[in-house]
Design a protein that fits this description.
It is built from ten helices and eight strands. The protein has helices at about 45-50, 75-90, 100-110, 145-155, 155-160, 170-185, 195-200, 220-230, 245-250, 250-260; strands spanning about 10-15, 15-25, 30-35, 55-60, 95-100, 115-125, 205-210, 235-240. It has an eight-stranded mixed beta sheet, with helices on both faces. Strand 5 (about 95-100), helix 3 (about 100-110) and strand 6 (about 115-125) form a beta-alpha-beta unit. Helix 1 runs parallel beside helix 10 (about 250-260) and helix 2 (about 75-90) crosses helix 3.
């Protein structure tokens, strides 16, 4: 399933954009911005996360069942969209968690405005250029077939590679739509904004950067470079995990996030 079992699904109008939103739990808002793949395999981690507050999981415009208007054609556009969504939901002191492509969106949001953000968690995030022009920082996800891609994403791909034969027609359509929208929004320049690295200094809220120690899409060294640009941020590895550590190691992910959220010393 590409939806989240035991979550409540609704649709929110964000300035005319019909947006699929799934929620679970009560208390402090935790806004989770999903990866380029969507929500497949996220259920266990997000259900555990709901013990820490009200987890809010939108499908990005063009992903899941959310509308993609002509006005959104870049990750920067998505950042403004999510700032508007936070206004629409009147979220306050929000913990924003962004994974991979979703982390890039979260970073673009945070360099613009953090008035509704209390803390940030970046998970194996893309979005910046670390090496020189001859160095590929981020594996080209479009240059490999699905089997090769899942071998790169997961530390233990045999446990997490999807069985496409089991997909319903709706799930297959959503999977294909997610991939199409991801390509459209993140292709040129590939998976980064050339200006973003120099703007990360503008982030002025407590920030945790989590990384799978076996990530072969963006290496832990890339993660350390990302973290180094954010004043006061903490960098932590999650062992035995690849690019989606919350999928492979949901308990370790939960423990790291819970410690970060609950510790009053983790203030800016």
């Amino acid at each position: 399933m590409l939806t989240l079992p035991e979550f409540t699904k609704t649709f929110v109008d964000v300035h005319g954009i019909r947006t699929e939103v799934q929620t679970r739990g009560e208390g402090r808002p935790l806004l989770f911005l999903h990866t380029e793949e969507g929500l497949r395999g996220n259920g266990v981690a997000l259900k555990q996360l709901s013990t820490l507050g009200r987890v809010i999981v939108p499908s990005h415009p063009g992903f899941g069942n959310s509308q993609l208007p002509a006005s959104i054609s870049s990750v920067d556009d998505l950042a403004y969209f999510y700032l508007d969504l936070m206004d629409a939901l009147d979220l306050q002191d929000t913990v924003v968690l962004g994974a991979s492509f979703g982390g890039w969106i979260a970073a673009q949001m945070a360099v613009k405005c953090v008035s509704r953000v209390g803390k940030l968690v970046f998970i194996d995030t893309v979005g910046i250029k670390v090496g020189d022009r001859e160095t590929r920082d981020i594996v080209d996800m479009h240059a490999v077939d699905n089997d090769q891609l899942f071998d790169l994403i997961y530390s233990a791909p045999e446990k997490h590679r999807p069985d496409f034969s089991s997909f319903s027609d709706e799930d297959a359509l959503i999977f294909a739509r997610n991939k199409e929208t991801f390509t459209y929004l993140a292709w040129r320049p590939y998976m980064h904004d050339p200006k973003l690295r120099g703007l990360l200094r503008r982030i002025r809220v407590p920030t945790l950067v989590l990384w799978g120690d076996r990530d072969r899409i963006v290496s832990p060294d890339y993660g350390r470079a990302f973290s180094a640009e954010i004043v006061g941020s903490q960098f932590q590895l999650i062992e035995n995990a690849g690019h989606y550590p919350f999928v492979e190691q949901p308990q370790a992910f939960h423990s790291q996030v819970a410690a970060f959220i609950d510790n009053p010393q983790h203030q800016f």
